[in-house]
Write a structure and sequence with these properties.
Elements lengths: L2 E3 L6 E3 L3 E2 L13 H13 L4 E3 L8 H10 L8 E6 L1 E5 L2 E4 L3 H15 L4 E7 L3 H4 L2 H13 L2 E7 L6 H5 L1 H4 L1 E7 L11 H8 L2 E5 L30 H16 L7 H10 L6 E2 L6 H8 L12 E2 L2
Parallel strand pairs: 3-4, 4-5, 5-8, 8-9, 9-10, 10-11, 11-12
Antiparallel strand pairs: 1-2, 1-13, 6-7
Length: 307
């Protein structure tokens, strides 16, 4: 595994993280504790130390599965990133909760679910600018940083071209940006990633496998199950065109003998602004495949650190 400095946080994170939206039950599968434990145990064995989750991956369900695992492990071995701003009601059904007092309750509920007294990165979760531009919210969160419940603040962009929230990060004391970035979606390269570099913000790239399209499993004509959130907007002609693009990438860019998934993760990590990728993983085999991408990264990234 390779590690990088997460912007001005000073945290050294594995370049491959574990995304855990799937633990919330919206990827077509319900997880038992032993299945979550197996995924996290394998991740740790392979040198991964970064877990990304959220309050609304289930009603703190993903966080609870992680917390139950951490009760049997060393909390200090992990960098935990979670998010705030929403309340889960059911399959792809959420309401927004952005008031300062509401968010502080979410924080306490997340800490309880995660079985910890602090979170390493607490992220504004894909909210609009009208919620972001709230000084009372950031003042309340800064007090939680001072109290030790939060080590670092971050912003998970709802639009990966939201330059307003990116440029304002230093002002609100956010040190991390999470965004969608992958071989099929390079829009952050225009403005957001350069802004992250100027501010020394750590960058977590979510959906690095483009919701599975760059995982090598799906071909044109593939259909996602109704109980998989990716079925929304993916069982379309546009999705079929995306899969055709993937076939062209495999034909013209993928080196011989390299898996598309590992290549796609490494592709993200070669951008000088990107610190780590946080792909989801449904099973232990996916963890192993994801971790293999670290072997495809050349040395010399500006954030590389010694293990």
């Amino acid at each position: 595994m390779k590690y990088r400095r997460l912007g001005s946080t000073g945290l050294n994170v594995s370049v491959i993280g574990v995304g855990t939206w799937q633990f919330g039950g919206e990827w077509g599968k319900t997880y038992a504790q032993d299945e979550a434990d197996a995924i996290l145990s394998k991740a740790k064995e392979l040198g991964i130390n970064l877990i990304d989750t959220a309050e609304c991956y289930g009603d703190h369900l993903s966080e609870s599965l992680i917390g139950n695992y951490l009760r049997k492990d060393k909390r200090e071995d992990w960098i935990l990133a979670t998010k705030f701003g929403h309340h889960y009601h059911g399959f792809v059904d959420r309401t927004d909760h952005w008031g300062a007092q509401e968010v502080l309750k979410q924080l306490d509920d997340s800490l309880k679910a995660l079985a910890t007294d602090y979170v390493d990165i607490y992220q504004f979760h894909s909210g609009g600018d009208e919620y972001f531009d709230n000084d009372d919210l950031w003042t309340a969160l800064d007090k939680q940083v001072q109290a030790g419940k939060i080590r670092h603040l971050g912003v998970s962009l709802g639009s990966n071209e939201n330059i307003h929230q990116t440029e304002a990060s230093t002002r609100i004391k956010s040190e991390v940006i999470q965004l969608v970035y992958n071989r099929l979606d390079q829009k952050p390269e225009r403005q957001v990633l350069p802004a992250c570099q100027r501010q020394d913000l750590g960058v977590l790239a979510r959906e690095p496998l483009a919701n599975g399209f760059l995982g090598g499993k799906y071909k044109p004509g593939a259909v996602f199950a109704a109980n998989d959130w990716r079925s929304r907007g993916k069982n379309t002609d546009a999705a079929a065109e995306q899969l055709k693009r993937v076939q062209e990438i495999e034909r013209t860019e993928l080196p011989e003998g390299v898996s598309l998934a590992a290549w796609s993760l490494a592709w993200c990590l070669k951008h000088p602004a990107v610190t780590a990728v946080i792909p989801g993983c449904k099973n232990v085999e996916h963890v192993i495949s994801n971790a293999a991408a670290a072997d495809l990264i050349d040395a010399g990234h500006p954030q590389d650190v010694s293990n």
